Amino acid sequence: MPFAQIYMIEGRTVEQKRAVIEKVTQALHEATGAPLEAVRVWIQDVPKENWGIAGVSAKDLGR
């Protein structure tokens, strides 16, 4: 059973997350031949202050 774990900075809409789940599921299905029902996708929203880019938090960078 393919399992995709995706970390993203918080702030995406429910519709955007649905689209990510749908497209990642389809890609894993096509790449591995696994049935759609067997694919699992987990999106982890990360607070901006917990995401670092070049030594600075995403929040401090205004992202």
Tell me what you see in this structure.
With 63 residues, the chain is of the alpha+beta class. The radius of gyration is 14 Å and the shape is elongated. 2% of the residues are buried. It has one domain: Macrophage Migration Inhibitory Factor (2-Layer Sandwich), CATH 3.30.429.10. The longest helix is centred in the middle third of the chain and has 19 residues. A two-stranded parallel sheet has the order 1-2. A two-stranded antiparallel ribbon has the order 3-4. 37% of the residues lie in helices and 29% in strands.
Radius of gyration: 14 Å
Q: What is the CATH C level class, in words?
A: Alpha Beta
So, CATH architecture? 2-Layer Sandwich
| Total separate domains | 1
- Name the helix and strand elements from N-terminus to C-terminus, one letter apiece: EHEEEH
What's the number of helices? Answer: 2
For the sheet with most strands, the description reads: 2 strands, parallel
Helix content: 25-40%
What is the CATH H-level superfamily? Macrophage Migration Inhibitory Factor
Overall pLDDT metric: 97
